[in-house]
Every structure is written in structure tokens, then in C-alpha cells.
């Protein structure tokens, strides 16, 4: 086929287009070209072909809808070209080429319009800098041939604005996160299309309507800001003219010689974070604009909306469930290279402290002493492990072992015992001391020093924090902690952490020091009393057991005997409500006539004197093995966990190993947990919400991958049910009635801090108090306590029931709440408790000698009732409307002989009468009333 050489008339031979123009949309190449058939007959079944030399996939030729040319599609989705409404051909476009096949003969006007509609676009970032040839060829028909013409097309490179992708449009967070700080957009991409980068460029971050509480900052990453300088990996690469603080823009300018790549600008933008210094309300939003300027001063802006949507918490039917987890691992998940033991859970439930001989759990400035147990704290939220038995610089002590772990009430401090001499300056006493580690600051302080800071001249051990965390009690053999300590024995001291004041409390009600040494003290939950263990005869004469449990009232100084023990090497523990004391002892020391046996776990009710054997099976049969180690009450006081070698507490216990048991103190049911045949389990304790059991074990099959061959610390979910109701039956032997329950909750906003209140209730016989006992990672627990109001209770007849409902409201601090009703049913027995029938009118009997213990009984006619006293006088209350005619008092002295005090008269018609004591080991006065 022959080719005609005559050109298209009017075609622009040299065409220059701006890069940004063809980036935006296709541009017509020539709107003035004219095409004429050589013989004037038009174009019959020919074609229009346009091609670009050196074309790439970024070069595109197309037909624009201009000058009477329109486009459509046929049934096969092919693009059809029309001229003045008449179909003229099919458009076929490919990379760098374009063909319009003419289906019908067209005249010169239609072909001219088609040539003038040829358009070009470029989708790349860096266009070619040299001109390229565009060839136009019009095929008339196979017989006549084609006409051809060319133009030189040049693209003029222009500064492209940075391109931002994967940005916004919304970045959602919780209100709690706003206070902690949030990354605005952590997965965006910023690119300079020209490939030059951001040398000398800028980043400005602006918030619409910003207030003083709105702050921008850089989260940790390769870039950092110090003063007005921007650093990249420690090198200054720019300046900061806007700090982003207190409602101001964050404005950063890069140095002209700092080559900042697309990836580095992206990394900087992803570090930009927001924090509010004021509470952010639910559904609050912030509009933030990022403006990027590249090396050629081209700019682009992108906006994201920060939203803070709150989700309300919800009460659950039960606590968390799931598998057992290993606690004594390092922050990288590595198992300890030596054993770990004695776990203690912080009061907020977020940490576990334990003693470990491992050298690889936490990094320390100095090597760990070999075979020296040290104290560590595992943060359950972050997984970090902190060495606690270290000096203020973090260096481990120069000797060990460290021992006796106890948290402060706010979980910010840990007290421990150590023989190290380099934990604080000036430790030259070569004795065991008590230290406190501040977990926030890292500061280590020595507590076993006098009020002026002078070090003790002998050992100190077994520290315990008071309920409010302001004091520490401990036992010391030192004689120089207080003035006048000349008894030559160990004493029990209380140190005021705020003032430094040191007080010796190992004295009886008259202030006389004990004849022997106390041990293992513990504060009551309200801080008003302290329980301890001492050798027999040191406090109360005539006690036959080798040692005894005592409770001292820190307000009155009175000391009361709780029980005899079989060994002074023991611990004592208050129940959560302070009404009971738990301890280990041989049964013969606490139960008259009981045979000698292995140590067992007992609970003594301090009000009624009732003694409960805990280490027994569900029917009350005593365990046949030793109960040893630590034990603990559940937070609601309804369960106890302990370790026992007994094989008869539950069916099928045939491994011959010590196991961990949980005893229900209400039903008597007992359960064995953490069963294993590969090692002993020990040191159990509850988490503050009662949802987890934390313990140590030498077993290797409790969790997968436990192959270190050492004892480890574990955490086991108990899947306890939420308690929403309780039934109480009046008991004349009890001085008050209480019920305790635990409610579990969850919150999708894992950073929220929760609080609980009890909605006001009217016409109730008791009150409910509640507190959040754990709050971590969007889960927690509330413990509620119902207490009968003794001023309101009247005796209920047998079978009579009074049901009271209270509403607990849990708040997340951002407007989200959840409500839960708890009900308490009071069931009458026909007799009320002593206090329930007592009048507020009091009468005083004076002149009583020290050391008196009187016993309460039923307040029915002719029944005995009384009051414990140790300091020379006490008050008695009469039944409402009751006038006693007489009362007499007798005493059983330490020789167990009865003596009657004469001449003691109670004002009114009262006399003092003799009444037999029920405890032959306890010298007692008993007051009887007679109608």
C-alpha cells in the first residue's frame, strides 16, 4: 500500500505541555489541525492512527469529547466514536498508541474533528526531558493509501506537590487515651513525586480551634525535639519554630543541607502525637491538618479528624477465664535460669513481686550475686521486670538473700529485708535491715533506723505496711530504736514513714514491756489493731501452748489473747473485714483434748470466739498431712487458699505431693487447684479481685514450654462468679451481721480508670459500701459489703424475711456507667444479736484490775453477757427498757482458783454474781444479769 507524503495542514510541529497539566487530565494535542483526503472523496473504511515514540506505561493517548466528537459503548463494551451524533468508528487505545477504525465512510470534516480530539495525558512523576515524536496517520482506503504528519512533543517538568496517602480521614481513640497521648496517624505515606525529597522543606501541624489543653508532640522514634532543634538519630536536621504546646502549631523546618527522604518524612509524620491536659468528653473531636512542603517549595495539605468515643463498662456474670500463665519470665519472655518463689500481688492487681535466684530476669548495673535470692516486680500490663532489692541507682545489693515482700496500699512501694550493706549510704551495722523501694522513683530507703535516722544495732525483719501505707510495723532485736529499751529482747515497732517517729508497741495494756519476743505482726484492715505471735507466758500468764496469737488495740493499748499455737515460727492473718484471724497450729494447742497432729489451718472469730478448722474436707474431717507455707483470704473473705500435704481433703489425691486447696468458708466445699504430678506447688495467694490465683510451683507441666527445670511463679484464672445476692440469718451469738460479694466487669476502653458508688437507699436495715479492688486492661472487680445498722435492727420473728436491694453504679470517668443491683435477704430466728438489743445508755464500773477477759453470751433472761477489758474500767450497756437487779463478778486467776470481788456495785439495782468461765486457759471475769 502506497503512502502519501502530503502532511496534515496546520499541525503544530513542536508541542510543549506542562507536566502538571497532563498530570491533571488529558490535554488535546492540536485543535487547529485539518485533515483532507487527497482525492476529495473522504475516508472510506480507513482509520486514524496516532503513536508516540518511546512511550511508557505512563504515556496515554485518548479521544476527547470536543468539537462534535462524543463517545459511547456498544453491547460488547467497546468504545464508539460519534461525530454530530453519527457513528464513525471504534476506538482502540493502548500504551503510547491510539487507533480509530472507521466503520462507515466519513468525510474530511469528520476526520478533521477526530484528529482535533486526540488528547495526551501523563501519569508518572518524572517525565522525560527530551522531545518525542507523535505520528498522525490517516488511512483513506487500501487502494488510495495513507497521509502522515508528525509533531515533536515535549513535557515541561514542574514542581509536583507532595502526595499523601493512607491518611485519615478519621483517627478514633478513647477519652482516656487523650490524656495519655495518642499517635495521630501511624500508617500514612508521604511521597515527593519529583523524587527530590524534602531538603529545606517543612512540616506544619495545625488544629482548628485549639485550646490551651491541646498539645502536639513527637512520640518515641527516629526524630526527637530538644529545645528548638529537630534531631534525626541524634543529629540536628532542622529547627522548630512552633512547639505544638498549649494550643500552638507544631512547625518544623528542615535544614537546607539535610537530605530528608520520603521515608524519613513519613516517619516524622507518623511520630506526631496529640495529648490533652484536660479531661476529654465523650464524642469529642479535633480537626488536625498536616501541611507538607518539599524541596521545591511545593506544598500539600491533608486533614484528619481525631475522635474520642467512650464505651461504657459492663458488669459480667463471672470473672476472667482462660489458661494458666507464667509470671516469672523476663521482659523478653525468657524463663528464669534459677528458681522463683514467694509471689505477692500488689493491691491494685497490676504487679506481682516475687523472690528469685535467676540472673536473667531484669538487667542490673552490676552482675547478680550467685545463689542469692533477690526481689523482683513483674508489671502485668507491660511485661517489664524490675529489680527491687537494689540501691537507688538500680545496682543489686552486695549480699543476699533478700526476703519478706510486702506492697504498700497504693502499690507504689515495696518493703523487703536484706543483709546487703550497700543499698543505702552509711549501712555499717552488719545486720539484716528493712528497706522500702519506691517503684516510681527507684529510691531505696532504710526503715529500720531510729527517729533521727540512726541505724539499728541489731537485726530487723518481717515488715508489714499499715492499711493506709503511712506506717510500717516490724520486729527488731535492736535496743537503740527507742529510748528505754532495756528488756534485752526483740520488740515490735511501728515506724511512721512521714515523720520518722519510731514507737515500740510490744507492751501490755499498762505499757509494761513483754517478757519475751513477739514475731510476725500484721495490721488489721482498718489499721486500728495489730496481731502478732509470741511465746507463751510473755503476755498472758498461765498459757500452756508454746506460743500464742494476740491482738493489740493500738488506740487503747489493750492486748487480747486469740489462741494458743504449737510453734512460734508461724504467721497470722486478718480477714478482709478484720473480724477474724487465721493461723497455723497443731490442733492440741487450740482445741482442748485434741490429739497431737500435723499443723492445720484455723480461723478464729474475734467477736464470738468461734474456731473453724479450714484444712478439712467438705464434711469437716481434719487433713491427715501437714498444712504449711503461706495462706490467704479471698478479697471478700468467703474463701481461703492454702498448701497441704494431706491426701484426704479431696477424692483421688494420690500423687503424694503438697497441693494447693481453696476452701469455701461458707459451704465447707474444698477444691484442689493447679494439680501436677511433676512437682510441689506452694506460696498461694489471691489477686485483689479474687479472679486469679498466684502461686509458685516446681512442676514442669503446668504451662507449655516450661523447660527451665526450676520453680516458677504462675497465675491461674479462677472463673469466679459475680455475687449479686446474699442471705443472712440472725444469730444471737454474733455482735453484727455482714455479707460480702464480688462483682466483675469489663470495659473495651482499656485505659479507663473506674470508680463505684452506691445509690442512696431509704428504709433499709443496713448499708452497703463498695470499692474497686482491681482495674487493669479493661477488666476489674468491685467488692461490696453489707453491714446491718445496729441502731435500726429489731428482732425478726422466726421465718420472717426482709429483703433489701441496693444499686451499685460503676463509672469510667468519661460519662460511661454500668449499674448492678445487689440484694440481701435478712431471715429472722426469733432472737437478735446482743448489740441489736442494746440501749445506747451506758453504765460504768470502775476499779477493775488489769488483765480481765469477759465473755459475751445470749442476751436472753438469766443468760450471761460481758465485755473484754484489760485496763481497769469498762462500760456496760443494758437491754432497751431493761433494769438489771444485780450483778456479781468472779475471776479465775492464773492458779485457776476462783475469786469473788466484793463491794463492786453497778449503779441502779445491780449486783455482781459469779459465773463459770468456758475457757480454762483464760483468766476471765464474767458478768451475769438477772431479771
UniProtKB/TrEMBL annotation:
A Pfam family hit:
PD40
User: Signal peptide: which range, if any?
Assistant: none
Q: Which InterPro entries match?
A: 6-blade_b-propeller_TolB-like, VCBS_dom, WD40
Could you say which protein family the record assigns here? Belongs to the TolB family.
PANTHER family, alphabetically? PROTEIN TOLB, PROTEIN TOLB HOMOLOG
Designated name of the protein:
PD40 domain-containing protein
Q: Which organism is it from?
A: Xanthobacter dioxanivorans
Q: Which taxonomic lineage is given here?
A: Bacteria, Pseudomonadati, Pseudomonadota, Alphaproteobacteria, Hyphomicrobiales
Amino acid at each position: 500500500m502506497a503512502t502519501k507524503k502530503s502532511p496534515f495542514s496546520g499541525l503544530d510541529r513542536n508541542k510543549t505541555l506542562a507536566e502538571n497539566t497532563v498530570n491533571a487530565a488529558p490535554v488535546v494535542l492540536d485543535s487547529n489541525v485539518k485533515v483532507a483526503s487527497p482525492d476529495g472523496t473522504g475516508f472510506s473504511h480507513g482509520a486514524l492512527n496516532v503513536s508516540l515514540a518511546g512511550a511508557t506505561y505512563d504515556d496515554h493517548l485518548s479521544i476527547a469529547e470536543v468539537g462534535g466528537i462524543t463517545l459511547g459503548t456498544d453491547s460488547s463494551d467497546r468504545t464508539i466514536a460519534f461525530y454530530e451524533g453519527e457513528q464513525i468508528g471504534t476506538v482502540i487505545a493502548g500504551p503510547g498508541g491510539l487507533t480509530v477504525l472507521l466503520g462507515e465512510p466519513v468525510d474530511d470534516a469528520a476526520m478533521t474533528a477526530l484528529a482535533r480530539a486526540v488528547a495526551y495525558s501523563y501519569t508518572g512523576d518524572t517525565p522525560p526531558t527530551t522531545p518525542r515524536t507523535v505520528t498522525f496517520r490517516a488511512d483513506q482506503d487500501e487502494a488510495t493509501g495513507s497521509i502522515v504528519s508528525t509533531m515533536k512533543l515535549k513535557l515541561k517538568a514542574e514542581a509536583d506537590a507532595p502526595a499523601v496517602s493512607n491518611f485519615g480521614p478519621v483517627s478514633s481513640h478513647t477519652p482516656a487515651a487523650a490524656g495519655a497521648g495518642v499517635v495521630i496517624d501511624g500508617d500514612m505515606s508521604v511521597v515527593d513525586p519529583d523524587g527530590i525529597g524534602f531538603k529545606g522543606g517543612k512540616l506544619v501541624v495545625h488544629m482548628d480551634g485549639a485550646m490551651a489543653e491541646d498539645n502536639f508532640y513527637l512520640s518515641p522514634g527516629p526524630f526527637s525535639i530538644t529545645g528548638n532543634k529537630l534531631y534525626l538519630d541524634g543529629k540536628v536536621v532542622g529547627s522548630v519554630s512552633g512547639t505544638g504546646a498549649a494550643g500552638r502549631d507544631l512547625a518544623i523546618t528542615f535544614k537546607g543541607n539535610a537530605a530528608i527522604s520520603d521515608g524519613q518524612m513519613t516517619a516524622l509524620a507518623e511520630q506526631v502525637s496529640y495529648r490533652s491536659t484536660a479531661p476529654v468528653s465523650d464524642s469529642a473531636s479535633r480537626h488536625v491538618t498536616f501541611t507538607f512542603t518539599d524541596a521545591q517549595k511545593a506544598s500539600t495539605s491533608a486533614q484528619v479528624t481525631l475522635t474520642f468515643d467512650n464505651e461504657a463498662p459492663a458488669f459480667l456474670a463471672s470473672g476472667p477465664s482462660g489458661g494458666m500463665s507464667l509470671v516469672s519470665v523476663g521482659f523478653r519472655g525468657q524463663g528464669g535460669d534459677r528458681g522463683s518463689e514467694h509471689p505477692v500481688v500488689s493491691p491494685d492487681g497490676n504487679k506481682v513481686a516475687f523472690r528469685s535466684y535467676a540472673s536473667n530476669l531484669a538487667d542490673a548495673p552490676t552482675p547478680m550475686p550467685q545463689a542469692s535470692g533477690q526481689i523482683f516486680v513483674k508489671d502485668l500490663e507491660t511485661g517489664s521486670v524490675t529489680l527491687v532489692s537494689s540501691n537507688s541507682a538500680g545496682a543489686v545489693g552486695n549480699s543476699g538473700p533478700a526476703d519478706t515482700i510486702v506492697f504498700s496500699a497504693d502499690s507504689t512501694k515495696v518493703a523487703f529485708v536484706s543483709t546487703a550493706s550497700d543499698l543505702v549510704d552509711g549501712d555499717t551495722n552488719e545486720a539484716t535491715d528493712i528497706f522500702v523501694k519506691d517503684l516510681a522513683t527507684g529510691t531505696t530507703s532504710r526503715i529500720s533506723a531510729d527517729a533521727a535516722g540512726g541505724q539499728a544495732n541489731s537485726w530487723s525483719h518481717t515488715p508489714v505496711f499499715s492499711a493506709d501505707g503511712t506506717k510500717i510495723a516490724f520486729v527488731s532485736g535492736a535496743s537503740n530504736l527507742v529510748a528505754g529499751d532495756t528488756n534485752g529482747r526483740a520488740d515490735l515497732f511501728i515506724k511512721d514513714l512521714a515523720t520518722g517517729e519510731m514507737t515500740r508497741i510490744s507492751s501490755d495494756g499498762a505499757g509494761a514491756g513483754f517478757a519475751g519476743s513477739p514475731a510476725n505482726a500484721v495490721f488489721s484492715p482498718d489499721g486500728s489493731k495489730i496481731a502478732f505471735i509470741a511465746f507463751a507466758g510473755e503476755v498472758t500468764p498461765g498459757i500452756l501452748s508454746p506460743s500464742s496469737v494476740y491482738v493489740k488495740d493500738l488506740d487503747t493499748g489493750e492486748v487480747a489473747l486469740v489462741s494458743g499455737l504449737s510453734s512460734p515460727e508461724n504467721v497470722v492473718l486478718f480477714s478482709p473485714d478484720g473480724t477474724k484471724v487465721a493461723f497455723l497450729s497443731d490442733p492440741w494447742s487450740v482445741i482442748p483434748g485434741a490429739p497431737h497432729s500435723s499443723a492445720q489451718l484455723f480461723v478464729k472469730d474475734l467477736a464470738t470466739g468461734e474456731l473453724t478448722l479450714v484444712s478439712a474436707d467438705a464434711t469437716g474431717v481434719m487433713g491427715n498431712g501437714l498444712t504449711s507455707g503461706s495462706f490467704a483470704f479471698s478479697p471478700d473473705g468467703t474463701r481461703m487458699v492454702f498448701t497441704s500435704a494431706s491426701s484426704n481433703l479431696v477424692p483421688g489425691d494420690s500423687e503424694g505431693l503438697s497441693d494447693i486447696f481453696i476452701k469455701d468458708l461458707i459451704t465447707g466445699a474444698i477444691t484442689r487447684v493447679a494439680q501436677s504430678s511433676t512437682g510441689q506447688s506452694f506460696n498461694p495467694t489471691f489477686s485483689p479481685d479474687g479472679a486469679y490465683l498466684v502461686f509458685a510451683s516446681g512442676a514442669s507441666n503446668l504451662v507449655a514450654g516450661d523447660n527451665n527445670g526450676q520453680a516458677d511463679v504462675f497465675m491461674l484464672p479462677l472463673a469466679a462468679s459475680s455475687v449479686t445476692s446474699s442471705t443472712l440469718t440472725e444469730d444471737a451469738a454474733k455482735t453484727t451481721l455482714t455479707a460480702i460479694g464480688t462483682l466483675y466487669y469489663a470495659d473495651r476502653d482499656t485505659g479507663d480508670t473506674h470508680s463505684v458508688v452506691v445509690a442512696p437507699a431509704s428504709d433499709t436495715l443496713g448499708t452497703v459500701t463498695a470499692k474497686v479492688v482491681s482495674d487493669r486492661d479493661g477488666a476489674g472487680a468491685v467488692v461490696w459489703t453489707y453491714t446491718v445498722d445496729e441502731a435500726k435492727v429489731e428482732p425478726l420473728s422466726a421465718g420472717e424475711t426482709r429483703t433489701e436491694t441496693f444499686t451499685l453504679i460503676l463509672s469510667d470517668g468519661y460519662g460511661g456507667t454500668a449499674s448492678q443491683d445487689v440484694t440481701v435477704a435478712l431471715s429472722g430466728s426469733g432472737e437478735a444479736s446482743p448489740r441489736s438489743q442494746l440501749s445506747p445508755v451506758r453504765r460504768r464500773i470502775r476499779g477493775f484490775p488489769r488483765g480481765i477477759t469477759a465473755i459475751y453470751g445470749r442476751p436472753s433472761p438469766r443468760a450471761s453477757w460481758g465485755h473484754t477489758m484489760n485496763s481497769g474500767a469498762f462500760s456496760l450497756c443494758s437491754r432497751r427498757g431493761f433494769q438489771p437487779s444485780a450483778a456479781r463478778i468472779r475471776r479465775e486467776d492464773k492458779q485457776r482458783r476462783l475469786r469473788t470481788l466484793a463491794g463492786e456495785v453497778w449503779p441502779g439495782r445491780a449486783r455482781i454474781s459469779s459465773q463459770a468461765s468456758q475457757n480454762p486457759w483464760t483468766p476471765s471475769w464474767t458478768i451475769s444479769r438477772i431479771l
